[in-house]
Design goal:
ten-stranded mixed β-sheet; UDP-N-acetylmuramoyl-L-alanine:D-glutamate ligase; Rossmann fold; 18 helices
């Protein structure tokens, strides 16, 4: 299983969560004080006595800025507030009245060693005025350290896009819950370090969450190779890719891994991997009738010829949970009806190009990557792991997990085959598709960080046992 990650909310969901706090008797002013002091404490811990410029906008994000400025002032920090306009909400006006320091106009602001962006936060839906944006970007760019409160001004929280030109921040302090732009590209890469400031909103029912470290149990005294999970990997035109999936399945905890393919085993096949010869579709189907199989992988190195199509069709007809990866994803659009008719779950692992092949014209219709993944998972009645620097795992029931800020060294051939094998091992062990994908995504990234720079896919697979060890229940 995986630990329950912290919630990711849309702007509307965050407004509703805050309203529930107000309905419980907490005032807007009190919640603003809570948020601003929490953010101020984090800025104080990081920046200490660094002279600070706080940029305040007209709304409640600006109100947070006045609270932050007062918190820092009371700590003895030299702090100046530059206000874009007068506050336009009661809570922001009250926060400004409580600030005991200097407030200047935004156009009077001079560059400072440390700058705090409280102009607009997560409520922005249109670009900033060009003159304001130019001055804002200059102030942020010339600071030695920059903080954005809730979200960098200029970014759209729900669509996770820049409304103005991209702007790099050192720290983003999210208030209450993550927003999509914190974790999804292209905004996420410009956010620097992320911190979540708890303000007391209830996010228990949120269906979208940020990935957390899995908690995985070691085999108990009654375990044997089949109980730990038998993984079968189908071999196509390029057996090396299938071998990578097999090595990964072994490293991620499977008890038994076998290759199923025609002819003799690949010459590089190690002795601890079982080769089951199956020279035609009927023989493959017979091999897949083994009731002990916990998961089947089809796609790594499969090819896209008639033999590949036959292997995919045979895999779709088998009674076991199925991971469809790589080449098989390009062949899948003609077989969508088979996905809904299966008794066992299907797990799909597309990268961007493969996702577009699956989704067709609908690929660009949704608000952001999470919405696109959830829509396709629902349409196909399949679990989906949509790969990338901001990997998204989606279930047909609407649950989703964002695995953000993936190790950039994973951008090497074969690492997708390793991920497929890792998913298969976790799935064969407990038969929970969404959890298997979430566990595998975390293990995959952890193994990459263990491997260091410039690793191969085989080296990545070899690091999986060490990644797994970090997840074992103590």
């Amino acid at each position: 299983m995986a630990e329950r990650g912290s919630a990711v909310l849309t702007v509307a969901e965050m407004v509703a969560a805050e309203q529930a706090v107000f309905d419980s008797g907490v005032s807007v002013d009190a919640l603003m004080q809570r948020a601003g002091e929490g953010a101020g404490q984090m800025i104080w811990r990081i920046g200490g006595m660094t002279p600070t410029l706080v940029l305040c906008g007209p709304g409640n994000n600006g109100g947070d800025g006045y609270v932050i400025a007062e918190f820092l002032r009371r700590k003895g920090v030299p702090v100046t507030v530059a206000a874009l306009t007068e506050p336009r909400t009661d809570a922001a006006r009250h926060a400004r009245a409580r600030f005991g320091g200097e407030v200047i106009g935004f156009d009077e602001a001079e560059p400072a060693t440390q700058v705090v962006d409280c102009l607009f936060g997560s409520g922005l839906t249109r670009p900033l005025d060009g003159v304001v944006w130019h001055r804002f970007a200059e102030l942020v760019g010339r600071a030695r350290r920059s903080f954005a409160i809730d979200l960098p001004s200029g970014a759209d929280a729900d669509r996770a896009i820049w409304l103005n030109e991209p702007l790099r921040f050192d720290q983003v302090l999210a208030l209450g819950a993550w927003k999509y732009a914190h974790l999804l590209e292209p905004v996420a890469s410009d956010g620097g370090a992320l911190s979540l400031i708890e303000i007391g909103v209830d996010t228990e029912t949120a269906k979208v969450r940020r990935i957390a470290r899995p908690v995985i149990g070691a085999p108990d005294a009654r375990s044997h190779k089949y109980r730990r999970g038998l993984v079968a990997v189908l071999v196509g035109a390029m057996p090396g890719a299938a071998l990578l999936a097999v090595h990964a399945a072994q490293g991620a905890g499977a008890g038994y891994v076998k290759l199923i393919g025609s002819g003799d085993p690949p010459p590089q096949s190690p002795a601890d991997i079982v080769w089951q010869r199956a020279d035609d579709a009927a023989a493959v189907a017979e091999a897949l009738r083994d009731p002990r199989i916990g998961a089947v992988v089809v796609g790594p190195g499969l090819g896209r010829d008639d033999q590949a199509r036959s292997l995919l069709e045979t895999a779709l007809a088998c009674p076991h949970p199925l991971i469809v990866d790589a080449d098989a994803l390009h062949l899948l659009p003609g077989h969508f009806a088979s996905l809904k008719g299966r008794g066992a779950p299907v797990l799909l692992t597309p990268h961007q190009g493969e996702f577009e092949a699956l989704a067709g014209e609908a690929a660009g219709e949704a608000t952001n990557k999470v919405d696109r993944a959830r829509a396709l998972a629902r349409k196909l009645d399949a679990s989906l792991l949509y790969k990338g620097a901001d990997t998204v795992i989606a279930a047909p029931d609407g649950r989703a997990v964002i695995a953000d800020r993936r190790c950039s060294w994973l951008s090497v051939a074969g690492t997708g085959d390793v991920l497929a094998g890792c998913i298969a091992a976790r799935l064969a062990g407990h038969a929970q598709p969404f959890e298997a994908m979430t566990e595998a995504a975390w293990l995959h990234d952890r193994a990459a960080r263990i491997s260091g720079p410039a690793f191969s896919a085989l080296q990545l697979a070899a690091a999986l046992p060490q990644a797994l060890e970090a997840c074992l229940e103590r």
